[in-house]
User: Fold these one by one.
Assistant:
Number 1:
Amino acid sequence: MVITPTFTSGFNNNFGVNATAARAAWIAAAKVFTDAFSDPIHINITVDAVTKAGVFGESFPGLVSISYADLFNQVVAFASTKNDAIAIGPGGSMTATDPTNGTGIWQLTRAQAKALGHIPDDTNDDGGTTFGVGNPFTFSGPIAPGTFDFQGVCAHEITEVMGRFGLSGGNNTFSLIDCFSYTGPGVKSLGGGAGNFFSIDNGVTLLKEFNDSSANHLDTRDWAGGTNDSFNQFSNSGVVNPVSAVDLQVMDVIGYGRVNAIGSLIETVGHITFLRAHEVGSGFGKAPNFLDSEVIVELAEDPLRAFGFQLRADQNAPARTDMFDILRAAFIAGRPVRLDYVTIGPRAGEIIRVANP
Amino acid sequence: MSNLLEKTGKIVFLRAHDLGTKFGPPTDQLDVEAVFCLNSIAEGAFGFQLRNDGNLPARQAMFSLLRDAFVNNLPVTADFLIDTGKKNGVAIRIALIKSQVAATHAVESPQRISGKVMPGPEANAKPTIPRSKPKPRKAR
């Protein structure tokens, strides 16, 4: 994942002598997410600064529409982490049925739509972040008393462009993060308000409380407060506001993950839980994870992915028959196997080598 | 009319035979070379052709899985096509399935980078400033 800022002349001019440090802080904030996630996309953000009073940090995400059925399918197709597995699993917060019963309009931010394969990757502008230069910021090093952690503010606004952005029923529109808002077990709260918590397991575990937008008319999906955190609605001064574990959990389930570019050569090791052979042309899975293979393997250590190779009457038949025999032996013995595969989808790989670990 | 069904069970009968020998009575006959029965069905068998054609490697692999299941007394899952009212079906997929505990997680969780020290708020951490409300752009 590449996050590319375009700093405006207003950013450079208005921050003046602090412009270099402010740019570095913004880039450092973005790096937190490019280090955490590997989706093969480019996120392009315009970064501005203004002298206008009352502006602290703002975001302007570009949005694209999606049907709920497509949203669910893309979230499932691009699931790549343990959090995703919980979210799309039987007790997860993502349901195949539209929680608005078909009455709501669903939208993704452009960046998020690229991560979920809803629109192609591109270098077009995905949105903007704007900061008010009149605030006392610390741009690097220890946060001085009475000043605000600028990198934390940047992380806050960057992630809103990435999709951490509650539409929550405004103009009857909803965003993916709204699907993870609960007031209790099984009680989804798409619209925001008091007692809304982030949960990936259908409200059983309430991970952190969202801001009460009904009380302050601010963001529905910022955090209410508590521990200093870059995703808080209100930013404390004199402290570091980090990107926390639960923050990354949010970004994980709203579309970002460990997804390798199509065509990547990856190695994985694990114990076989599923080994199948089938007739030519039967295939396995559905787009974008369809495997046009005759042998299918799944591993306990990589449960969201499936791997396969063709076993046809061609020049590869002898080698692939031996690859298959290694898989069989590993399965029967309950021993791990090492697979080298080329990614053909976010959750599918074509095996080119099979070996013992 | 053929239906695609799935059945899981242990193999109680496994046979390979010469081309054209076939299996079953004339009214419910399988023109196949590999035949197997599962303990989970009271009547009926499954089979597939094992001939020198484009499907040979895949079907040899299917047969290998049946052999593994039979030798090791493991359950096997078969997807098969069967005509309404018939008891014998044509297997098109053979799978071995077992629960295994993951030794390690091949997929690194993003949470692994979360081990940062969370500094506590300073005594004079106020004032707090509300962030400006984000303004969505017009939907494209």
Note: Chain A touches chain B through 94 residues (CB under 8 Å).
Number 2:
Amino acid sequence: MKARDIAMLTLDVIAGVAVLIALYMALVWVPDAANLISPDEKVAQHIFYLHMGMNVDAGLGFLVTLIGSVLYLLTRRRIWDMIAVSSAELGVVFATAVLATGSLWARPTWNTWWTWDPRLTTAAIVWLIYIAYLMLRGALEGAEQRARFSAVYGIFAFLSVPLTFMSIRWWRTIHPTVFSGSNPGAQGGFSLGPHIRLTLFVSMIAFALMYAALMAHRVRLEQDAQAVQELKEQLL
Amino acid sequence: MSESGRVTARARTDNSPHEWNAQTTRVSPAKSYLRKVLAITWKDVISELRTREIFSAMFVFALLCVFIFQFAFDLQAENTRVLVPGVLWVTIVFSGVLGLNRSFVLEADKGCLDGLLLAPVDRSAIYFGKMLGNLIFMSVVELIILPLFMILFNLPLWHPGILVVIFLGTLGFSAVGTLFSAMAVNTRTREIMLPILLFPVILPVLIAGVRMTGGFLDGTALAEMQNWARLLVGFDIIFLAIALMTFDYVVEE
């Protein structure tokens, strides 16, 4: 346990420093994007780096939930369920942040808080699916059954995402009047300058580290909760 | 085949599969599996024919949906072509969830599911049986509301393409829905849980269904909607397979 404490503390410090560096680079160091004109857009553009970083975390979170779910069903070891739920919670937190920061960026850039763009819509649906995942967990009584059911749902949740994205993209492209061409650079068509690329890279690494650090704490919390539960059962 | 002959054939299924295979020449394993699936479906159909609980609720609910949409959107001749595919699919999905909920609530109520699980059949046969039952209930409701939609909105909905799309959509819906229904009955909130679990996952079915129904109404060629057709069939195959693989985990005790 001692070695684990040290490892976790080290990870915390590294992740904390990395996030601070990423914040500094994204908000102060990196120059404004050259292709933007209005001052509002220039300020808002700095959100992009953090937005992408948190996007990585949300994706990681849901992917790890899938892996934990599959491994739980195969091995039936509680630790995989703990990893799955911890990761799903973190994924939902970061997905919420991604939606919020995206909205903040969209207001000055697209002149609206929200559009029914395929990416945005898919992100919102994914967010809803994992909220449903957490609600399912909350509504189940036995620990073993909760682990089993949510593992099954975790698999369905992840596998439905590509189909949802495809269907929403086609749904949009068939409607040419609603949303075409007013999406500057969102498809990755613009070339990134060296500063921008470096900041983006650092931000993604920093947030991935933050995810790892938070996961370590969240899984340990789950393990402690189980230990407390077992002690309670012994006493009663 | 005499009645006694059938009974012995059924009794043999309890023996080891090896012996059973050697003794029965008339019933192949695939046929006997199919018979088990149909027996479970038949059980649901009979109990439904006696009570008419699920069907009447789904049907009346579907009717109410139509009226609510009518008042909400003021469906007129000039906008029905655009709006009715959506209205139709939302009606199907909402009334379908109502039926799916009952599907396993009835089983859970008096320990019926435990009885079903004790039966000497493969778990996947139980899944297929229940899924088929749900598919039948939903299809019957759809076959009644579809002409109704035609009358009320004056649209040529009785199109072979639309019928196939509705069938494929309902198949995907009940494939996922049957599994989730088995999970939802075990939650504290029971019925409330199912739509929350189900709707975000079956969204591709809904979108593809609405698009293709609208496309057929507008006379779009199937070749132009190939991606939707593929998505629908792909969804059905993928999720039927995953539901089959995971159903064991949901009903084990």
Note: The interface with chain B takes residues 73, 125, 128-129, 132, 135-136, 139-141, 145, 148-149, 151-153, 155-157, 159-160, 163-164, 166-168, 170-171, 174 of chain A (CB under 8 Å).
